[in-house]
UniProtKB/TrEMBL annotation:
One of its GO terms (molecular function) is hydrolase activity, hydrolyzing N-glycosyl compounds. GO terms for biological process: cytokinin biosynthetic process. GO terms for cellular component: cytosol. InterPro entries: LOG_fam (IPR031100). This is AMP nucleosidase. It holds the Pfam family Lysine_decarbox.
Length: 117
C-alpha cells in the first residue's frame, strides 16, 4: 500500500512541475500575490527552481501592506542561519504596490528581450 501511494505522489509531483514549465514558458516573470498555503507552496517551488537554475524568470513578490513581510523575514532567517546561500534573497524582487510590480515586470521583459538578441 505504501508503494502505491509513493508512486502516485511522484507522478503528481512530476506532472505539476511539468505543467508549470509548459504553461509559464513564455512568461517574463513569476508574480506571487497575497494568498494562502497554495501561494506559499508555489512561491517556494518557483524560488527553489530559480536557485537550481531550472528557470531564469524573476520572482516578484507583491507585498501590499506588508502582507509578505513575515515570509521575507523567514527567508532572511534561513539565510542568516546558514541553511541557504545569501544569493537566495537576490532571486526575489519585492514590490510594495501594483505599480512597482508592473515596473518590475517591464524591467524583466526588457532584460529578457535584450538577452534574446
Amino acid at each position: 500500500m505504501g508503494r502505491m501511494y509513493s508512486a502516485v505522489f511522484e507522478g503528481v509531483a512530476v506532472s505539476a512541475a511539468q505543467d508549470f514549465f509548459e504553461v509559464n514558458a513564455p512568461a517574463d516573470a513569476v508574480v506571487v500575490l497575497p494568498g494562502g498555503a497554495g501561494s506559499l507552496d508555489e512561491f517556494f517551488e518557483v524560488l527553489t527552481w530559480r536557485q537550481l537554475g531550472l528557470h531564469d524568470k524573476p520572482v516578484i513578490v507583491l507585498n501590499i501592506a506588508g502582507f509578505w513581510d513575515p515570509l521575507l523575514k523567514l527567508v532572511d532567517h534561513v539565510i542568516d542561519q546558514g541553511f541557504a546561500a545569501p544569493d537566495l534573497r537576490g532571486y526575489i524582487t519585492v514590490a510594495d504596490t501594483v505599480d512597482a510590480a508592473m515596473r518590475a515586470l517591464r524591467d524583466a521583459r526588457s532584460a529578457r528581450s535584450i538577452s534574446a538578441e
